[in-house]
Amino acid sequence: MGRITERRRVVRIRDGLVTERADTLVGEEPLEIRVNGRPIAVTMRTPGDDFALAAGFLVSEGVLARADELGRIAYCAGATDADGGGNSYNVVDVRLASGTLPPDLSLARLERNVYTTSSCGLCGKASLDAVRTTARWPLPLTGGPLLSPVLLAALPDRLRAAQRVFERTGGLHAAALFDGEGHLLDIREDVGRHNAVDKVVGRALERGALPLEDAVLLVSGRASFELAQKAVMAGIPVLAAVSAPSSLAVDLAVESGLTLVGFLRGASMNVYAGAERIALPAPAGA
């Protein structure tokens, strides 16, 4: 299996002083995901938690929602990787339990949908409609924790303290699940934001925890439409990001009942949707 980190020689320049040294880099390799033996998607990821990544990816595509829908996941023995070589643990096959695939979602259509969205995207309305029609939970999302701004403000530091590989590489995104009291439930790191989210969602699926209706998902970068989609498809009611959301992510949050918080830095934050889950203080001067 590929390594999470690798060492490379670099020339370091600091204040005019030139030295050579070894540097630790985050690993990045392709992962091909197959469903019942059929290639569905290829994603660039940091090796590790590959089975959870594949399961979480299929949650976001509306294929999986419960642990009993998953048959087994295995690396494909004898498969060829992107370079035409032997099995390098870069190909996984997800076997679905009998009858799991929704009747209106064939593998052929899933393959076309995934490759289309990853290569050229969809228009805003089509993207929103796709989530609404494939979500396995009733929308809009209801319930969820009531969070104080003070609790939310503490989460980025807790996420950062738990990023073990980031400490050595500085090159990884992270996604973390917290409960309504701010306790860390799980954290995964990956070179891709979407992969980190798929890993935490996939691990939740494997332990039968979906929908994550009382959880908060915190991501280390921006909140794109894709990450908002993954939160909704996992039944997560709150998505927070340390950077900005996209306009389509906000549209999806409003339509789906998702609480979306951006620019979560220190004691400041912007609530773009779902403010009813935030215990807001009275406005200044009220």
Describe the structure.
- The protein is α/β, with parallel strands linked by helices.
- It folds into two domains: 29-134, Ubiquitin-like (UB roll) (Roll); 149-277, Cytidine Deaminase, domain 2, CATH 3.40.140.10.
- It is 31% helix and 28% strand.
- The protein has eight helices and twelve strands.
- The chain has helices spanning 50-60, 107-119, 124-134, 149-162, 164-169, 193-206, 225-233, 247-256; strands at residues 5-14, 17-26, 29-35, 38-45, 70-75, 91-96, 173-178, 184-190, 216-219, 238-241, 259-265, 268-273.
- The strands form three sheets. It has a six-stranded mixed β-sheet, sandwiched between helices.
- Strand 7 (173-178) and strand 8 (184-190) form a beta hairpin.
- Helix 6 runs parallel beside helix 7 (225-233) and helix 7 (225-233) packs parallel to helix 8.
- It is flat, with a radius of gyration of 20 Å.
In short:
This protein is of the alpha/beta class and 286 residues long.
**Total domain units:** 2
CATH class membership of the largest domain: Alpha Beta
Q: What separation lies between the terminal Cα atoms?
A: 59 Å
User: What is the name of the CATH architecture of the largest domain?
Assistant: 3-Layer(aba) Sandwich
CATH superfamily of the largest domain: Cytidine Deaminase, domain 2
Number of helices: 8
CATH topology of the largest domain: Cytidine Deaminase, domain 2
Number of strands: 12
With strands numbered from the N-terminus, the spatial order across the biggest sheet is 8-7-9-10-11-12
